[in-house]
Amino acid sequence: MLIKCIFNKGKNIPLEYRCLYETDETDYSYLKIGDKFRVYGIKFFPTRVDYLICNHYGNRNPDWIPGNLFEVIDHTLPNNWSICITYLNQDFKPLYDSFKIHSIISYPKLVTSISHYEGIIEREYDDLLYFFLEKEKFDNRCEYQSES
């Protein structure tokens, strides 16, 4: 899946799509309008989706970013991704209870291990290392497919 940044300000997220305390002043200026990003995970809320991307600049760590800031260029999902329905999974249910996250789609470990999911957000070394190994495999598959 490939997306293109079309906005980088909180004010571009309509009020009814704000799920995580975003305001008009929420700053996404580290995203450059027009830049394209590969998607490494998709998180579904009742009124929006967030994409797990890596910025091209700065720390390059993965971040969940509101989908309202992007347009989808390529809708194709990797064939090895899995899904977690959060409210049906005891480990992930707190994500539904606290944030109303309905489901997550991504590489298997991200949707089967709540500690890995949290580790990505908390910037835990081992979890970031695992993420970047998955990212490299995914990026290599994408480059191969684009050459075919």
Structure description:
Keywords: Plasmid. The chain has one domain (2-141). The longest helix is centred in the C-terminal third of the chain and has 23 residues, at 125-147. The strands form 2 sheets. The protein has a 5-stranded antiparallel sheet with strand order 5-4-3-8-7. It has a 3-stranded antiparallel sheet with strand order 2-1-6, with no helix packed on it. The chain has helices spanning 93-99, 108-112, 114-122, 125-147, and strands spanning 2-5, 36-38, 41-44, 49-54, 62-66, 70-74, 82-85, 103-106. It is α+β, with helices and mostly antiparallel strands and 148 residues long. Helix 3 (114-122) crosses helix 4 (125-147). It is globular, with a radius of gyration of 15 Å. The protein is built from 4 helices and 8 strands, in the order βββββββαβααα.
Count of strand segments = 8
> Spans of 5+ residues with little confidence (pLDDT < 50)?
none
Strand content: 15-25%
CA gyration radius, whole angstroms: 15 Å
Give the mean pLDDT: 91
- First and last CA, distance: 17 Å
The tally of domains stands at 1
Write out the strand line-up for the largest beta sheet, numbering strands in chain order.
Answer: 5-4-3-8-7
Give the overall shape: globular
Question: What is the SS-derived class?
Answer: alpha+beta
- Main beta-sheet annotation: 5 strands, antiparallel
Number of helices: 4
Keywords: Plasmid
